[in-house]
Amino acid sequence: MGRRDGRVWLTDIAPDGDNAAGLALAASPLRAPVGARVLPGSVSAQAYRANVAQASAAMRGTSVIGTSAAGLPETDASKAGGRVTAFGTGAHGSPGAAASPGTVGSPGESGGAATAGGAGAAGEAGRLRKAVLARDAVVETVEDIDVRAVLGRLNADYPSCWTFDVAGLVGATPELLIGVQDGTVTSRVLAGTYRVQQDPAAELDAARAQLGAAKDSAEHRFAINSLAASLGPLSPDLHVDAEPHLLQLANVIHLASDARGTLAPTGSAAGAGSGGAPGSEHEVGDGEAAGSPAAPPSILEVARRVHPTAAVGGVPPAAAAALIAELEGADRGRYAGPVGWLDDRGNGQLGIALRCGQLEARNRIRLWAGAGIMPDSDPDSELAETAAKLAPMLRALGARLPDEAGGETGDTAGRLSPPESPPVG
Ligand SMILES: C=C(O[C@@H]1C=C(C(=O)O)C=C[C@H]1O)C(=O)O
């Protein structure tokens, strides 16, 4: 499957009839999904609402959940994001360029997390301020799922996203964890979500109003600071947009910030810590960047340093990971992990595996979606946000969520699905 100039092409290489030795190019028709139905996942809608309520109460200090709110638990922060196993050939293209970036002087946490976290909890370094909680849903179809058809529909509906299919992990993500090209690193951070009701273009003012308010701005600031703190030590000239822009998709509108910088050579003084951010004592490069010691770190090394960001984990990372493990109680698999491609020179693009699902059988796929939870989160609207984020895959599969909250989330998914025509013409 390929994409060029906004057009998608599919090529199937299959045995040529009885002639097992010969291969021929055959245009096998795409099969639209038939009879899709949604089954409950391991985190039900009801459980998700309860999780959100518990998490925000813990952040406000009005309840304590196990170890999570008590300080700095032991949990490995990397568990918050999916496993870093999903590399492949499926990521194509690149969302359009953003406005010119501003400069972040010192990308440390000092001016960021504490400020964004508000007054109440400030001063308690280990106190939980943001956690991204997710839930899942299972879609089953009558016939085998034709992944090509799902990809085609995602590509058509979400042309500015990176569409992927890596070992059965299928989706279209709007978020670039990192791109590395000849020593230049880029990233697109998303956090803060407006749910589209009918028409994204007509709702930009409403989105701007919601996303400009305290909750979403703070949520976004956490995500930027998290990236800057981890990437800054590797890229001393890292620039992050001074102001976020709106990323308009068919189902949601996000606050988005782009970052760009030069990767300092591995082992150089600059690379080893002139970024000055927390974590810079960590040794940069431990053998993964093949070649001379002066080579910039490879995309794998950079990914190891930045994943998971606060866009899928939380702040602080360890406390958020502990809370996520405790409340979700389910394995996210590769959801929220890096997905994309890399080459043998250390270049590549790794998106964050969002708006996706993992095939579990030929006719069954498990979808995941999450939302950033803050002290003032409302469980119903966070649930509805996850429904809106499930909508792209549901629509591509010809499925719709059952009514979950007196119609609100069902409506959101319903307006965006099902497709009236076969996924790709
Ligand atoms: C966690 C997801 O999305 C992330 C969370 C967002 C938010 O909370 O506003 C926005 C974009 C993503 O960084 C997801 O799509 O599952």
From TrEMBL:
**Listed Pfam families:** Chorismate_bind
What are the start and end residues of every segment in region (Disordered)? 72-120, 266-295, 398-425
Alphabetical list of InterPro entries matching this protein: ADC_synthase, Chorismate_C
Locate the compositionally biased regions of type Gly residues.
Answer: 108-120
Chorismate-utilising enzyme C-terminal domain boundaries: 124-269, 297-389
First and last residue of the signal peptide: none
Alphabetical list of SUPFAM superfamilies matching this protein = ADC synthase
Q: Where is the composition biased (Low complexity)?
A: 88-107
Name of the protein described by the UniProt record: Isochorismate synthase
Please report the organism this UniProt entry assigns to the protein. Brevibacterium rongguiense
